[in-house]
Amino acid sequence: MSLSDLASIGSFASGIAVVFSFIFLALQMRQSNQNQRSLMQQGRSARTVDILMKMTEPVLSETIMNAIQLDASKDPAKIFAFYAFACACFWNYEDSFLQFQTKTLDARSWATDDLTLTGLLTNPAYRAAWKMARNGMSDDYRNYIDAKLKSAGASQSRNIAELWDTYINEERAEA
User: Fold this and answer.
1) Rounded CA gap, 161 and 169, in Å?
2) pLDDT tens by residue, the chain, 175 residues
3) Is residue 87 domain-resident?
4) How far apart are CA 35 and CA 18, in angstroms?
5) 37 in helix, strand or coil?
6) Is residue 150 part of a domain?
7) Is residue 141 part of a domain?
8) Number of structural domains, the chain?
9) In terms of residue numbers, what domain contains 115?
10) In a domain, 80, yes or no
11) What is the rounded CA–CA span in Å between residue 89 and residue 74?
């Protein structure tokens, strides 16, 4: 075997090594992308659960229920508490909106957030809070929510206790 033949074999082996390196790199990039999306989803879930847990605090839950049932409190502290809570919701969904725009949040996750956001925006209390908070949001998100407000329209708030009773009675009837 000549030196030229050995050089050809070495070149061929080197080419195969490069191909395997590219395949490995592609797999690594894919795994890294999946890990990043998983972290984004975890962050989204953590923010949402944190907001839901805050709603269980007695003073805040009473304030939220009064606001969404349109029991107009003139107490500035309660108005501010609901406004701050609504802003936290809006910023939570803005983050999801921006992540979805940059394709780091799954479309199904954004669809869930968008549906929840639409439900919130049918309530006059959240609509009023949006009007107060909208200038602190990014342009694209602000335009998106403003358009959603026009199409969603306001609706009457449902009494959560009555809704609970309806569903409990349905479950009892099926049992």
Assistant:
1) 12
2) 777 777 778 888 888 888 888 888 888 888 887 787 778 778 888 888 888 888 888 888 888 888 888 776 678 888 899 999 999 999 999 999 999 998 888 899 999 999 999 999 999 999 999 999 999 999 999 999 999 998 877 676 667 777 788 888 889 898 7
3) yes
4) 25
5) helix
6) yes
7) yes
8) 1
9) 39-174
10) yes
11) 22
